[in-house]
Design a protein that fits this description.
This protein is about 55% helix and about 10% strand. With about 850 residues, it is an alpha+beta fold.
């Protein structure tokens, strides 16, 4: 009886924490429990990407591993491939499905952080506060609203992965190894390598810190054992995801992440590291955090909120426009303010600030002051590194060094994403501060001195910006004055008001509106600076009351949890609130009249170009058609070259070779309208001649110089091979080839030709999985027209089949399955050992 009562009492903090996390997540996402959903942009795009994959699975039960629905066709490794041998992800990973998203994201993020803190020795009651800070970080709500699902799951599992590494290096090495393997397997399985990479950098910082401690304390042998265990856990985690990792690595060399072959041609065969093995530096750093913009970690509207946020309707800009409108006889001019951006940062577009919470940053600084060096320096070091990396092009010298020397770093774009590590580190440091209070370990003098420094620095910054922020920044005034002056000039000229231009009113009024914009942006920043100051004072006040013995430690933790929610939730709701939820029906992509008209054409193989959307940044066309365009961050590099060189300009010959039969354009009534193109080359065709090219640059150049209907552009070696066979290429008018069956991973053609001939297939060439068969016998194929497939076909009437299957599938899946099983067996063994020890301990106590 005593044993049961003791265990129940011991479980109260865990039960309470889980209830707090669930209630907080459920209240925030209340519409979800009424059956409403979020219209998430990336989810809608993803469904378009994967539509023909899911359709084939439903119809045949087969996983195609390839999509023909966008960019002419591409491997599905980075879209949706079923890997049955991923046992950890497919079984343990199902735990997170007990709650539907988006509430599941918030709940499991808080729970994962809380569990990590337990591993780090943080009291379960104390851990609630930093877990709330992590789970309600504004960045989470931004990516949930955008539909960045894999990124969010990676951020859910990341704290557990770090907790496993902590346990392996500092606590029970074998239990830590099992947890690390399990959590890292789930983290990798979330399929967002960029997030995983950044947290591995944080893990490396922890490992270096522990190595220094081991060297100083002469525990190198023990450290070596722990390092080996951590490495073994990592290898098992990699192995349990070997299949997706293997195929992604194989595929990435062919994508824009692997670099363009044209870069080598342009450099005379010499390529830089970023050119040949990574993303272009300018492309990768397009989303770089401004140095000044970094203050929005502390003050949410420091840079004017998100790019789409308008200026306030009752602000100075609206007043200036209303006054101008009175003079022009246009009283509605004041409404223009709602069309002018509040954001004045350096990013081309942002959905909102990475606000961590002023109270959370205050606690983190307190932790940095009070915490021992072993728990402090590595966290501060990796946080500083990530902040510097987030600046990207705003400190290009440092960024170039990272691209050149940090292994794998040049594979990732959106460098500002490194801030996710700081988003995790800030609550962790705060937890260490609260634990010093919980254990009453801080001498009185050090307590008050640390509190004064932490409150003085964070609160002082907030006060500085609240009082003097207007004199420190120009809030983009100069650019706004020029832009507004041009806007007024165009307005006057379009409405026959040239006299206002002659009198310089366009400049005068443009400057007045620019002052209004600057004033509104300044007011937004200062209002949030005061708000952040209040949050710092509330948190500092709670701790001061504890120091004065006016508040118990349990009440302190409850009060700080409330402050954390009061601080973060209202800011979060600026970007994702209950008003953003809609009925499921409204998120469905429905075919337009143009789509329905095209879908009447049952001939397989043709493609569609949709010009009513951004064709190469939108996958909704793939809901209904095989699209020339699409939406993906790792499309095939050669296809991107084709887009840049020809498709952006709608080159008709290249559209023809891609069998573009229909173009969707805006009609006179603004509705999509289908136009049929009669010049498309078809699903396959025979050619009269081959044009040899010695390089990728020559290949792509020749596409604009030859008749692609009669001539195939191939590499010089292939052209010479055909010539060596003395193969006749004069096209016979009776030769025919036709696509008679199509699935994403299978195409069947029937043809007849009186002589051996070369056929070009309007399908994307990819030799790592696609195989061709003539009458069931595997036959060689080669690349033609830069991105397409071609074959030498024997004379007569025959059948050509193309089949796609991930190479070495059975072997790769076997490795994945074995490593997954080892992790699951190790987890089961750890649970049994723990239960037996618990039982033995209870027996001795009895």
């Amino acid at each position: 009886m005593n044993f049961n009562r003791k265990n129940i009492v011991g479980m109260i903090p865990a039960i309470a924490a889980i209830l707090i996390f669930f209630v907080a997540a459920a209240l925030y996402c209340a519409p979800q429990f009424r059956g409403e959903v979020l219209p998430q942009h990336d989810v809608i795009q993803y469904e378009g990407m994967a539509r023909d994959i899911s359709r084939m699975r439903a119809q045949t039960g087969e996983d195609p591993q390839w999509t023909g629905g966008m960019f002419g066709g591409m491997p599905a490794y980075l879209i949706n491939v079923a890997y049955p041998a991923q046992l950890v992800k497919n079984h343990v990973g199902k735990v997170v499905r007990w709650i539907d998203t988006p509430a599941a994201f918030l709940f499991f993020a808080m729970l994962s952080m809380w569990l990590m803190l337990l591993i780090c020795g943080v009291n379960p009651w104390v851990g609630v506060v930093p877990a709330l800070a992590y789970g309600f970080s504004t960045y989470f709500l931004l990516i949930i609203g955008a539909g960045h699902i894999t990124k969010m799951w990676a951020l859910v599992y990341a704290p557990l992965m770090m907790g496993g590494a902590w346990a392996t290096l500092r606590r029970n090495v074998w239990a830590g190894m099992v947890l690390t393997a399990l959590a890292t397997s789930l983290e990798i399985g979330a399929n967002h390598p960029q997030i995983t990479y950044y947290f591995l950098v944080a893990m490396a910082a922890l490992w270096i810190s522990e190595g220094i401690v081991a060297l100083r304390e002469k525990h190198l042998k023990q450290f070596a054992v722990r390092t080996a265990a951590l490495a073994a856990a990592g290898l098992l985690a990699l192995g349990s995801n070997f299949a997706p990792l293997w195929y992604t690595a194989q595929h990435s060399k062919e994508t824009i992440r692997g670099g363009s072959e044209l870069a080598a041609a342009d450099n005379g065969g010499a390529t830089s590291e970023s050119d040949s093995h990574g993303l272009d530096l300018d492309y990768a750093t397009a989303w770089s955090y401004g140095k000044t913009e970094s203050f929005n970690l502390l003050i949410p509207d420091f840079m004017g909120r998100e790019s789409a946020a308008p200026l306030p309707a009752d602000g100075q800009t609206a007043a200036e426009l209303t006054d101008i409108g009175r003079q022009l006889g246009a009283p509605s001019l004041g409404s223009w303010a709602a069309q002018l951006p509040a954001y004045w940062g350096e990013q081309p577009y942002t959905a909102g600030p990475t606000y961590l919470g002023a109270a959370a940053i205050f606690l983190a600084l307190l932790g940095a002051i009070w915490t021992s060096g072993r728990n402090r320096w590595w966290i501060l070091a990796v946080s500083l590194l990530m902040l510097l990396l987030a600046w990207g092009r705003n400190w290009m010298g440092f960024t170039e060094l990272a691209f050149r020397y940090l292994p794998g770093y040049n594979k990732f774009r959106t460098v500002s994403m490194t801030l996710v590590v700081i988003q995790w580190a800030v609550p962790l440091l705060g937890a260490f501060a609260l634990m010093r209070i919980w254990r009453e370990e801080i001498p009185r003098e050090r307590f008050w001195k640390g509190l004064a420094w932490a409150a003085g620095v964070t609160g002082g910054l907030c006060l500085l910006f609240a009082v003097a922020g207007g004199s420190l920044f120009d809030f983009g005034r100069a650019a706004s004055a020029e832009q507004m002056g041009e806007t007024f000039r165009q307005l006057f000229q379009a409405n026959g008001l040239q006299s206002y231009v002659d009198r310089g009113m366009d400049v005068e009024w443009g400057d007045a509106v620019a002052r209004g914009i600057a004033a509104d942006r300044q007011a937004m920043m200062q209002a949030d600076a005061w708000r952040s100051l209040l949050m710092v004072l509330l948190a500092a006040g709670c701790i001061a009351l504890w120091g004065l013995k006016k508040m118990g430690r349990s009440v302190l933790i409850a009060a700080l949890a409330c402050v954390m929610l009061i601080d973060l939730v209202p800011v979060d709701r600026r970007f994702l609130s209950s008003e953003d939820f809609v009925s499921p029906r409204s998120t469905q992509v429905s075919p337009s009249a143009a789509d329905r008209a095209i879908m009447q054409d049952k001939d397989p193989g043709y493609r569609v170009l949709n010009l009513t959307v951004s064709p190469f940044n939108d996958a909704t066309t793939s809901y209904f058609h095989r699209s020339v365009g699409g939406y993906h961050g790792a499309k095939l590099a050669r296809y991107q070259d084709l887009i840049d060189r020809y498709l952006n300009d709608l080159n008709p010959a290249v559209l023809d070779m891609l069998n573009t039969r229909y173009v969707i354009v805006p009609g006179e009534d603004g509705q999509p309208q289908a136009q049929r193109r009669t010049t498309a080359c078809g699903a396959a065709w025979f050619v009269d001649s081959l044009a040899g090219a010695a390089s990728a640059r020559e290949e792509i150049d020749l596409l604009g110089q030859v008749n692609l209907r009669t001539t195939a552009v191939v590499n010089t070696a292939q052209a010479e091979a055909v010539a060596a066979r003395q193969m006749p290429l004069g096209q016979d008018s009776t030769a025919r080839i036709k696509l008679v069956e199509y699935r994403p991973n299978y195409l069947r053609y029937e043809y007849s030709t009186p002589e051996e001939a070369v056929a070009v297939f309007s399908e994307i060439y990819y030799d790592k999985g696609w195989k061709a068969y003539v009458d069931g016998i595997e036959s060689p194929a080669f690349r033609a027209d830069y991105v397409l497939r071609a074959m030498r076909l024997p004379a007569g009437q025959h059948t050509v089949e193309w089949r796609f299957r991930a190479p070495a599938w059975n072997t790769v899946e076997a490795v994945t399955g074995i490593c997954s099983a080892l992790i699951l067996l190790g987890t089961l063994a750890a649970i049994i050992v723990f239960a037996l020890r618990k039982k033995k301990s209870a027996h001795h106590e009895g």
